[in-house]
């Protein structure tokens, strides 16, 4: 019988080991995301042998993350099916990619229906391209960046725990400007961001702060997610400060991403504005995600 529990910061030590074994690139396979979004998605974590498991939602609509780790994946998925049945729930796997879908099909032929979930596709970029913004397509980004550099007395700093209160003040102002409380997804995100900041040091994250005349106008937070990819969890700037977004992107990634082939800037949650912003950096590919529903 499987056991699922509330996600605690102490779980990071063993979870990271199992996540590294699978070496998945998807945003779901990062302890930071599992931890800071647990309240929104009603997530519970579990371990079976050398597999990390995650269950979200509530019965009768539990969803289970495709397990990460090593060993007999068929065994652990069968136990997840049993957990769902014992709780009177349907069984759906989330975070399924083309690769894990093939694995699932080989173990359970004709047992699952696969539905692509466009709003959860991750935007994957070449790290060198995202740092240099080279090429004709990215000329507008370079123009904004050059404008920012030429028209502001600016500085970039590595984010540290001492800056957290100041960054929280920035977040409150940013939310007031974009009217976070009017939009459910922004309200959810603000809760996740707050939890991320409260645990910044314990999550072993990397971040950067962009200032103009000493005042924060942008910041970002990310980390290495697997052997070839850096993930960006948070990137916020005052939109009226022209060039702040491409500048915080460049300064952060130029320090964190060298040596890694890709940058994962996560999904767009179906927000049209966010989708256009992510598309404007021209991802090299989309990491497609599926719901695998047992039938």
Please name the defining characteristics of this protein:
Aminopeptidase; 2 domains; 295 residues; 11 helices; alpha+beta; seven-stranded mixed beta sheet; single chain
First CA to last CA: what distance?
22 Å
Computed CA radius of gyration, to the nearest angstrom: 20 Å
Quote the CATH topology of the largest domain: Aminopeptidase
CATH class of the largest domain: Alpha Beta
What is the averaged pLDDT score? Answer: 97
Textual characterization of the structure:
- The mean pLDDT is 97.
- The protein folds into two domains: 113 residues, Gcn5-related N-acetyltransferase (GNAT) (Aminopeptidase, 3-Layer(aba) Sandwich); 144 residues, 3-Layer(aba) Sandwich (Aminopeptidase), CATH 3.40.630.
- The longest helix is centred in the middle third of the chain and has 15 residues.
- The chain is globular.
- α7 crosses α10 and α8 packs antiparallel against α9.
- The strands form two sheets. Strands 1, 2, 3, 4, 5, 6 and 14 form a seven-stranded mixed β-sheet that branches.
- A hairpin with a 2-residue loop joins β1 and β2.
- It has eleven helices and 14 strands.
- 39% of the residues lie in helices and 25% in strands.
- The chain is an alpha+beta fold and 295 residues long.
């Amino acid at each position: 019988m499987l056991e699922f529990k509330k996600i605690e910061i102490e779980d990071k030590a063993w979870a990271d080991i199992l996540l590294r074994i699978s070496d998945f690139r998807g945003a779901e396979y990062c302890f930071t995301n599992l931890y800071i979004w647990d309240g929104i998605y009603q997530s519970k974590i579990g371990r079976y042998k050398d597999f990390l498991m995650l269950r979200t939602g509530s019965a009768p609509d539990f969803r289970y993350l495709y397990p990460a780790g090593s060993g007999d994946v068929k065994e652990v998925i069968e136990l997840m099916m049993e957990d769902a049945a014992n709780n009177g729930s349907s069984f759906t796997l989330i975070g399924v990619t083309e690769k894990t879908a093939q694995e699932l099909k080989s173990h359970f032929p004709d047992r699952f229906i696969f539905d692509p979930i466009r709003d959860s596709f991750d935007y994957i970029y070449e790290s060198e391209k995202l740092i240099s913004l080279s090429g004709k397509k990215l000329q507008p980004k370079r123009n904004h960046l050059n404008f920012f550099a030429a028209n502001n007395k600016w500085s970039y700093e590595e984010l540290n725990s001492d800056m957290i209160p100041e960054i929280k003040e920035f977040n409150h102002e940013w939310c007031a400007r974009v009217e976070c409380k009017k939009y459910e997804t922004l309200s959810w995100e603000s809760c996740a961001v707050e939890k991320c900041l409260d645990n910044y040091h314990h999550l072993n994250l990397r971040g950067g702060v962009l200032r103009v005349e000493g005042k924060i106008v942008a910041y970002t937070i990310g980390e290495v997610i697997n052997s070839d990819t850096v993930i960006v969890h948070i990137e916020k700037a005052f939109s009226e400060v022209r060039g702040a977004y491409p500048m915080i992107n460049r300064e952060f990634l130029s320090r964190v991403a060298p040596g890694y082939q890709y940058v994962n800037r996560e999904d767009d949650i179906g927000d049209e504005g966010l989708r256009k912003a992510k598309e404007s950096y021209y991802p090299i590919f989309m990491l497609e995600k599926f719901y695998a529903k047992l039938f």
